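Marked as duplicate of an earlier ticket. Keeping the data here for the record.
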Amino acid sequence: MIKKQIYSIVNYNEAVASMDAGADHIGLVPMQSGGVPAHRVPFDVVDRIAAETKRRGVKFVAIMLNKDVDEMIFITKRVKPDILHVAGMDYTADKEFADRLHKECPGVELMQAVLVDGPDAVDRAKKYAEYVDYILTDSGLAADTGIGASGETHDWNIDAEIVKAIDIPVIMAGGLGPDNVAQCIKEVKPYGVDTLTKTSYKYSDGVMEKDIPKVIEFCKNADEADRELNK
């Protein structure tokens, strides 16, 4: 069954609505030194969302947009996610970090973002796959959000190569929304699909809010495409 990953949650109500819509993974940016201030979620809100994901059997993903290893480990211990997603380009997870995370935060899985900017992305994904638990393929690069959040698609042929080349789950992101998620699933056959920009409102002050009807449509279209593939 295709996994639907909904980013970037900022409050409890939209987390619940996204799970009601069919989200399998809920991703958010816990309070930290990196990323857009308006997107950082206070720990008390993170705790409420995490408790609800646990109750429903949905995976809670903590997104890291900084390069301070000690801070990432501290936040992981504090919020206890199912998956830690390292998304910044200033820092990418190495084997030393993976070993430390698994030792100090047992049970937490590690996801590394891979910028799909050309064929070299396949080799980077293969390298990371030696010690992380998930690969997230994505488009674009921004100083405040690291890899992703561009709303742009990329060459899906490279994602398909990555899916075939590695033995761990690949979650595909980058400009995915209700309009193209079915085509993506049929062409690439990833483990999961991720959406942020195309299922969010973005206000002039930088605040983002989930567009729940679009989240519902995204999940519905993803599930229908998956069923067609697996008839």
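See parent ticket for discussion. Residues 212-229 form the longest helix (18 residues).
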